[in-house]
Amino acid sequence: MIYLDNAATTYPKPEKVYEIMDRTNRNCAFNTGRGSYKIARELNNLIENTRDKIVNLVYGDCHNVVFTPSVTIAINQIINGLEAVNSKNDAVVYVSPYEHNAVARTLALLKDKRESINRGLIIRELPINPETLEIDLDKVKYDFAMEPPTLICCNHISNVTGYILPVQSIFEYGTEYGSINILDASQSLGLVNVITDRANSHFINADFIAFAGHKSLYGPFGAAGFITNNKYKLAPYIAGGTGSNSLNLNMPEEITVGQEPGSHNIVAIAGLNAALDNIERNTIEDVYEYEKELTDKLIDGLKKNRNIKLYLPENMYNHISIVSFNVKGYKADEVGRILDEDFDIALRTGYHCAPYIHKWLHSEEYAGTVRASIGRYTTEEDIESLIEALEEL
Amino acid sequence: MIYLDNAATTYPKPEKVYEIMDRTNRNCAFNTGRGSYKIARELNNLIENTRDKIVNLVYGDCHNVVFTPSVTIAINQIINGLEAVNSKNDAVVYVSPYEHNAVARTLALLKDKRESINRGLIIRELPINPETLEIDLDKVKYDFAMEPPTLICCNHISNVTGYILPVQSIFEYGTEYGSINILDASQSLGLVNVITDRANSHFINADFIAFAGHKSLYGPFGAAGFITNNKYKLAPYIAGGTGSNSLNLNMPEEITVGQEPGSHNIVAIAGLNAALDNIERNTIEDVYEYEKELTDKLIDGLKKNRNIKLYLPENMYNHISIVSFNVKGYKADEVGRILDEDFDIALRTGYHCAPYIHKWLHSEEYAGTVRASIGRYTTEEDIESLIEALEEL
To answer: What's the whole-model pTM score?
Structure first.
């Protein structure tokens, strides 16, 4: 099988991830925490070490890492835990048009709940240029001035088009109005630099960075979370046992403990820990370059095919790994089925859980897009196979 | 190491669980769902098959199973999704004094939120007899008559004392007043019969049964959920992508899809599926008898030790697997440390995330209890070692 569905989940993972997960499962899949035995306590060190590796990856000396079972749950905990959008006051939330339903539906649900008690939540899309499919930064500035943001939720890399959003500028502009900034780094952490060190010129002013262990970090399902600069407290959204202060019915205030109720999935965290050994700050650029080369090769090949309609940002410097397209005369899922059945090529079709962007892509007539997504282990031959298969259609 | 912490998580798991998880990880840890390739679609069958096995285990022909990453999240989704305790009207919730913080803190958080918008949530503890440490069923009837329950949350087996609560009667009494009944079967599913078939005389009238795959079901971390009889709709509490109807900002209404946002942890679900092969309705009693024998052996041994204070229900017919105790002159965690360091016995000490019960156990002077918990793979020798170690203290 030719696997081109790395935006859904990267595959394969490094061998070490599989090995450590199996070993952890067999030897020490215990419930971590206090009041326990040596091995269970040592697992706490593994969790802390994994936090350190994430913090190190983003140059985040003053940051905390919270683990959640999925990035969806991480985003739910952040948005629903923020006082600023859960208080009596109306709030204005800007989202990029490239948001995933993990953000879009979470905000829609919060808006509904607030409206049922006569509180407001205004959700605005960041403006894009319909021609270039890129964020219109001048208009962003203008919109923020007209209606200042309380909160900005922005995808770093679109899971539909591979567009790398100008999050540095967007968050910088928002910060002038005191916005809280949430970066959805599901598709980016480990692939592009996410720098939280204020002294660095590439510093992204994100207060929360949500990550999915099983995507660009090459870890397993079950280990995700968010990084926080601790500027904003989060109220608990999910409550439960924390192995600490158990007689107290309130969740502990400490950021990690208070946001991590229930048993840690130590097997998944051990897998993520192993995966992080393969991602060093100084090797990110090599992986990026490799994937960029394959991406460009794919785009070049698809451009030569007259039946193919591509959905790309104008400036190819702002693009990586994910290529959405359609084939004239076919619905997206028909193309997916043919590629799967006749060519053993695995990719994904449809709307990719991104509710806003398709009105700009005009992809409804195809019922979404065909999405090929490249990973660290994709080969030139994989790309050639896809290009050739599409030529045979 | 002698492992007596099965109430935290069972260990080891059946060999097949490890094998299938490793195989799934290596060969098909894909993102399931629509608009994808054959293997990813086939993983849906694995998920559906796992639901079927759970439903079959509880004789629940008309029931649905929702998967969540942890039982804590399952309970949060149920409690926060129920119209009856989230509407404008005040609600009365009864909890057993044996509840875990997954229930207790979730209710406390909901109560706080409701009070902040001038809505009521009255939380009452089901009455227990302080001598027998058992639920006082006569008084339950009286309390329900005086203040009828909107919702009842009841643990099936206490994770502190191993007490099997009379959930059949409690839910039966509550149902007379139209209560919604939530059973926390974290410690019981797979170990004692949980029967949802109305025609069966042991029928437990639970509307929601929350389960933890990694405890008495011998599956891995990451696969948990709840069973529902579909009598009560749940509003979404956690929102996100569902791979379906993506342009719609509302979560789908369908119970499973609408409650399972984000990627399924297919590796964990595959592990749970394998674990369920080892648990058949007709073998539950054999496992129960085996664990009961070991439990009684442990209790007999501990009773001979004059320094030991046991925390048990009066009627030993209502008890299984979990034995809490203290040793006079020692704090609970001192005993745990000595057993760990000097005898290589792993068990757990403290309050075990159960906030209410310790006032009835009077265990605060020991800072909680020492808890030995027996599993399917515990041996007589393990029990003897613990008894002997405690005699040497």
So the answer is: 0.98
Q: Is the pLDDT of residue A66 over 90?
A: yes
CA distance A8 to A219: 13
Distance CA B45, CA B33 (A): 10
Going from the first residue of chain B to its last (393 residues), give the mean pLDDT of each consecutive group of 10, the final group possibly shorter.
Answer: 97 98 97 84 95 95 96 98 95 98 98 95 98 98 98 98 98 98 98 94 97 98 98 98 93 95 98 94 90 98 98 97 98 97 97 97 97 98 98 95
Cis upstream peptide for B130 (omega within 30°) = no
User: A295-331: per-residue pLDDT in tens?
Assistant: 999 999 999 999 999 999 999 999 999 999 999 999 9
CA–CA min distance B198, chain A (Å): 31
Tokens of B4: 């007596």
CB A227 within 8 A of CB A65: yes
**Measured between alpha carbons, how far is residue B102 from residues A174, B81, B107 in Å?**
37, 15, 9
Identify each DSSP E strand in A147-223 by its residue range.
151-155, 180-184, 208-212
Backbone angles phi, psi at B285, to 5 degrees: -65, -35
The CA distance from B132 to A276, in Å, is 52
The pLDDT of residue B81 is 98
A231, amino acid identity: K
Backbone angles phi, psi at B347, to 5 degrees: -145, -170
Q: Is A249 in Cβ contact with B104 (below 8 Å)?
A: yes
Which residues fall within 8 angstroms of residue B10, CB to CB, at 6 or more apart?
A: B214, B215, B216, B218, B375, B376
Out of A8, A100, A250, name the one closest to residue B108 (CB): A250
| The residue type at B289 | E
Could you tell me which residues come within 8 angstroms of residue A382 by beta carbon, excluding any fewer than 6 positions away?
A2, A3, A4
Nearest-CB residue to B35 (from A25, A236, A349) = A349
Side chain identity, residue A324? S
Q: In whole angstroms, what is the distance from residue A6 CA to residue A330 CA? A: 23
Partners of residue A241 in chain B, C-beta under 8 Å? 72, 100-102, 105, 353
Q: Locate the chain B residue with the closest alpha carbon to A223.
A: B222
Side chain identity, residue A370: V
Alpha-carbon gap, residue B214 to A30, rounded angstroms: 10
pLDDT score for A238: 98
What is the distance between the terminal CA atoms of chain A, rounded to a whole angstrom?
19
The three-state secondary structure class of B197 is: coil
Task: State whether residue A212 is helix, strand or coil.
Answer: strand
Name which of B9, B87, B123, B263 to mutate to probe chain A: the one with the most chain A Cβ atoms within 10 A of its Cβ: B263
- The set of long-range contacts for B330-338, using a CB threshold of 8 Å and a minimum separation of 24, is B330/B366, B330/B393, B331/B366, B331/B367, B332/A35, B332/B363, B332/B366, B332/B367, B332/B368, B332/B369, B332/B370, B333/A35, B333/B367, B333/B368, B335/B370, B335/B390, B335/B393, B336/A35, B336/A36, B336/A37, B336/B370, B338/B393
Number of Cβ within a 10 Å radius of residue A25: 25
CB A247 to CB B355 under 8 A? yes
Check CB contact under 8 Å for A340 and B69.
Answer: no
pLDDT of residue A35: 66
Q: What angle (nearest 5°) sits at the alpha carbon of residue A167, between those of residues A161 and A170? A: 120
Does ipTM surpass 0.95 in this model? yes
Residues of B180-197 as b/e, b for ≥16 C-beta within 10 angstroms? bbbbbbbbbbbbbbbbbe
Question: Average pLDDT for residues A110-116, to the nearest whole number?
Answer: 96
